Amino acid sequence: MREGIVELDQPLRLMSGEILDKPRISWRLLGDPHLPVVLVGGGISAGKQAWTDVCESAKGWWQAQIGPGQAVDTNCFRVLAFDYLGGNGETTGPTGWNGENGNDPALFPAIDTADQADLAACLLNALGIDRLASFIGASYGGMVAQQFAARHPQRLNKALVICAGHEATPLATGWRHVQRQVLGLGLDCGEVARAVSIARSLAMCTYRSDREFSKRFATGVNPASSATAYLDHCGAHFARRFNIYAYLCLSQSIDDHHVQPQEISVPVDLAGFNSDQIVPVRQLIALRQLLGSKCSLTLSDSIYGHDAFLKEENAVSGVIREHLESLQ
Amino acid sequence: MREGIVELDQPLRLMSGEILDKPRISWRLLGDPHLPVVLVGGGISAGKQAWTDVCESAKGWWQAQIGPGQAVDTNCFRVLAFDYLGGNGETTGPTGWNGENGNDPALFPAIDTADQADLAACLLNALGIDRLASFIGASYGGMVAQQFAARHPQRLNKALVICAGHEATPLATGWRHVQRQVLGLGLDCGEVARAVSIARSLAMCTYRSDREFSKRFATGVNPASSATAYLDHCGAHFARRFNIYAYLCLSQSIDDHHVQPQEISVPVDLAGFNSDQIVPVRQLIALRQLLGSKCSLTLSDSIYGHDAFLKEENAVSGVIREHLESLQ
Hints:
The structure is a homodimer of 328-residue chains. By secondary structure, chain A is of the alpha/beta class. In chain A, 40% of the residues lie in helices and 17% in strands. Chain A has helices at residues 113-127, 140-151, 170-189, 192-207, 210-217, 224-241, 244-256, 281-291, 308-311, 313-325, and strands spanning 2-7, 12-13, 19-20, 24-30, 37-41, 66-67, 72-73, 78-82, 132-138, 156-162, 268-273, 295-300. In chain A, the strands form three sheets. Chain A has an eight-stranded mixed β-sheet with strand order 1-4-8-5-9-10-11-12, with helices on both faces. The radius of gyration of chain A is 19 Å and the shape is globular. The mean pLDDT of chain A is 95. At the A-B interface, helix 3, helix 4, helix 5 and helix 6 of A face helix 3, helix 4, helix 5 and helix 6 of B.
């Protein structure tokens, strides 16, 4: 495995108009240099650690999918991952993203999913990779994959988009808006960790499903207590590792996401799960119709809601294998 | 119409063990004294203003259902409503409920839905009403109606429970837990109105549905902006009229709610809506089975989620009429 931080020798123009001078991109690459490259991207809290080495303490966010003989088979493909612009990793953020201009939300810069796609294209240049066999993106990564397909079609054979739509749904935007309001309250009151924890607890409620919570916590007379303890635990854990500005920035980026499906000429495979509250099945069906005949859609049953892209390892593995086999 | 505040001449023992000395209950009663009485109860933000007089500026929360010729036909029934214990109205709260002992959540008193039912029974005593023809409760009121049926069966012919289960689901508890965490942050930071507004915005996301938000806000390229403006508006409006302690108290009361359906001997009619995120259809089907042959269940299609008990006036009217006709 190779990893590093490249400093681009060219400026990057963001959709907001800001020009980032020599942005830095943190990346990780696995596999034989002669093999075709697959780029993987996950949720807003995921980065280049899609897989980890045995010497690393934590598992990668898609550890189960990547490696020799796995769905993203490193005997057949090289795998590339990077930290998002304005995210929690070591990649650059735009001016003001980390609060240096103050905490007024009006001062926070916008990062478009198109910016992430352009950053990925710059990263390919820097690494000397001409073309991707596939961009496999889930959640936020699936939005970026759509943008990459729309903006850089000559650098991509096909994309796989899991649990992501062409725009945010109004209710999911509502959930995220509330999270950002909580984060803003925390910043104004000097209660950052507490606010990040609360916002993450809310996010967890939207990432899972009624069925999963009921199955998991309805064991006693009062199932309430363990659901609340679980949410508090998830929130506190996240608050220890995740930057509040990255949370604000990428949360807003999801809500600003908009791709014109008609502008995507590269074939796209779509996959989703019936209990996803963030990307409902009806949206994936609509997106498939808008993408036309070059698109396939695989819907699977799951109790895990949006998090099925992490939790339903077998279903996701099947979708990835079928997608990558179709490339050959 | 008559209304008033009764001060009980007897103490009321709460499930927490606290004894309320001479609690005050704020109530409202409509119709001919010779007619049988129907008690109506709504959500945690609803109180005795189920209907209003023409001279009052605001409409009642169930204005469409109550009156001459309406579903709760005041030519056939008297209608009674009251403000909840520990709620936003003029009824008493338990010791410490309004923060007089401090804002540590551990110091906030618990109010059981059984306490609300016992309070209702005390109110009947005070008003000289021996027996209810029906207790028609929706949302929190539906939980109280179940408790009344379980604890005071000799005072009730039948109950109608709309959008309420025998216990909170773990996911709905999660949503409310996050709301209470936000309220706690607001209390600690002296940002009460802002916290109530954020918590209410979250509540609105859980009261409606993906389908309704998508239909309503997906008119432009960026449907996000209007959903967020709507939530901010709902939150700010609520923050101007609703007490943060009442919010905390009754939100917790929902999560503590637990009725043993097997202990209900009075016939119960149930009604619900397929898009309700708070009281999912699967729970109503399970409750119906637990209640046995003395129970009916009416499920209706709606895009309005939990708020269908307010928004689906025709469907709710039909359910109420059928219920009240079965009494005669």
